[in-house]
Amino acid sequence: MNAFSQVGASIIFISMSLVHRLFLSVLVLVFIALPAAAQPAEEESVIEIREWLITGPVSVLVPAFSENGEADAPLLLDSGSAGEGGWLPAPGDEIRIGQDLFTWERAKGDLRIGAAEHDGGHVAWTAAYVEVDRWQKAQLVVESRSAVRLWHNGHVAASKSTVENGEANPGSLRHELELLRGKHLLLIKVARPADGVDLTLTARLEPVNPQDGTAITASTNPQRYVSMREVTDAPTPSSPALSADGDLVAVRISERGHDGLESRIEIRRTDGLGLIRTYAGGKDVTGIRWAPAGQRFTYVDRDAGRSDLWLVDLAAGTQERLLHNIERLGSHTWSPDGTFIVYSVTEEAEQSQTGVRRMEYLESRRPGFGSRSHLYRLDVASRTSHRLTSGPLSTRLLDIAPDGRRLLVSRSHIDYAERPFSRSEFALIDMASLTVDSLFAAPFAGGGQFSPDGRRLLITGGPTSFGEIGTNVPAGTVANDYDTQAYLYDLRSREAVSITRDFDPSISSAIWRGDAIYLTVTEASYERLYRYNLASETFERIETADDIVRSLDVAQNRSIGAYIGSGISSPPRAWLIDLESGASRLLADPSAEVYADVRFGESRNWTFVNERGIEIDGHVYYPPDFDESRTYPVVVYYYGGTTPVTRDYAGRYPKELWAANGYLVYVLQPSGAIGYGQDFSALHVNDWGEIVADEIIDGVTQFLEAHPYADAERVGAIGASFGGFMTMLLQTRTDLFAAAVSHAGISNIASYWGEGFWGFQYSAVATADSYPWNRPDVYVDRSPLFAADQITTPLLLLHGEADTNVPVGESLQMFTALRLLGREVEYVAVADQDHHILDHEKRVIWTNTILAWFDRWLKGEPEWWNDMF
Fold first, then answer.
1. Are 90 and 105 spatial neighbours (Cβ–Cβ below 8 Å)?
2. Number of folded domains in the chain?
3. pLDDT digits over 788-828, tens only?
4. Cβ partners under 8 Å of residue 866, min gap 6
5. Residue at 496 is within a domain
6. Which residue segment(s) compose the domain that 168 sits in?
7. Is 198:66 a contact under the CB 8 Å cutoff?
8. Which pTM value belongs to this model?
9. What does residue 409 show for φ and ψ, rounded to 5 degrees?
10. Domain end: 222, 252, 284, which one?
11. In 3D, which of 785, 851, 853 has the Cα closest to residue 815?
12. Is 650 a member of any domain?
């Protein structure tokens, strides 16, 4: 059975096959739905489609001391199961309710066979799938003498709690449904407190303002296209962690429950992949760390802003709490010998009580600035801890030396003398004396770890982290320091060498094991796995099961790895990989049931050659029902900033969902993105859309010419953040698009540079050594606001009102300009959301807003937009 959650009994019940047969003999089900094309007359717009799925009955004991069975019917609606909201019924599927299995059976036509003989209450369920090809509203009318409850797409929509006797007219439940394009599950629960009456249940859909040409069907077929329900609610694996010997692996599973996201940890064997234990506590269970030997691991249980650190010994069967009720507990790391743990705690800065404060630094207005994170040592045997660091700067633990005697740490120093206006200090702390040995200070530096012999460090950072040794660009060209490189730093000579200078992919993560370094990298639109052989100084790509590899872990004492993989139309899954053979085995696919009946469209790569003779990468998402003889509206998606749009599944801008709504989705990777080599990524520096805008216009023009089924009159553009800037800039330069969407876009580069919390530091790379006073050609001439009068395309501006990265004024300025110019523009603000829309309900509305805008302008279907706003 397909389900989002497990089903459990909520009341004492009796279940017998005889009762099942007898109950079905009295249940009359008529499912009335709509015609393929709605007619003006109401009686013609409602047509029977007599097809349902049925399961049950569960025979329920009426509560003791009941004096009026009919009055107890509302109580029975809460009985029988606790998981209806997660059901996705299919014919023949079995469902467990309590201790018994029930089967979903098809019911067609009018079923009427005498009254049931069994006394007492019953509950049963009926379900049908309704599919529409465009947004609309319809009134669902359910008539029944029983009490009924309706679920629409997993959410309780309405209930009728009255029960009528056999001589009274059936009562009715009326509920208006909003039907987005796609397939909808209607689940109805029927409950009766006693036998003696023939049961009838009829249902019909009555369109509200029916639209000509709308196709509406109903069936018992659960096959469907992807919807927001799958994108946001499906269980998701993350953070795989391997025990040192590689025999066990822990995977974190997060899932949306009734009270929001919840998580658990599953422990599995790597040989047979069997699940041996599950750990759950508060709403957020995370931070899995295996001890360096044995079957012990630690994890963090976070709830209501406080955290506990737990130690689990699988061999001994024990679980102990090492730290309790710690506020702002950070990450933790086991020592190589397993005798101690180093963890971090953040101390909040003292807040002004007057509401008046001095902004001493540019960073002073950032959330959490002034708070300091410091390190502590926890002795595992004695359960005692003591503080390791203090001072005015946060200390970040990077690694513990193999002999356990030194910590590799970093601290960030503000430095306005040169870009990026901060420098990372790397240092060693002696665990015995807590003395500090400062190693180096570098711009654009990030991670670090010890070599297995403790003599060298593996450092990741930008091409200029160690001067010019990591750069590979022509003379006079500024390297893009977001194009992450890897370096080896010798602790004795205090010198660094680059190992990736001639390696085009950008480094995402690195793990040093023995004589090899395992790297996950951004390579074009892929996230791939490579092995760097230290002896031969060569890179070898290791094939993986999915296009995107994230959260890699490698066992300490065995050549085995674990990772989270995803791809176009492939939701995240956890994999094990043999690092010698490259063979991957599926470890956990928690959303498999959810997606079992979901159909995706095809995806194809498509590239073009720009005017400089460079091939520009891209790929296309096709609607699931794609027919090459038809024409389709097109949505063009891009970022245009320093990173490519990777092929991972869905995300905040779910291209699969747009395709499922009938759009061709073209994604392109303009010049300046990392993952294509330093020459390519350097084109981002000091460009701010000059190259990228021309490439997008050129690419879309070539795409439309090469694909006759792409409707050149119905093309939409969408981007976010830097991509939102690109959306606005494009509309000042072309009338190619029929509609455009900018989420959190930048309209005035100079105001973003000064007002955005990170604006001046992002510009330290994007506009290296360029400022409003020396480069008005960038800060003014390439700011869309100053060419707003050139925009004629209908433009939707979206912005989180609490955005600290790109301030909300960037959308407000453009909105003001276009309204005064009398242009077609809308501005939708999302309250209490920052740069990303994370609140679940607001995210759904925000996503629907984008689709409704495109439906309005690219399909000529304004009804959804008009209903929303």
1. no
2. 2
3. 999 999 999 999 999 999 999 999 999 999 999 999 999 99
4. none
5. no
6. 2-222
7. no
8. 0.92
9. -130, 165
10. 222
11. 785
12. yes
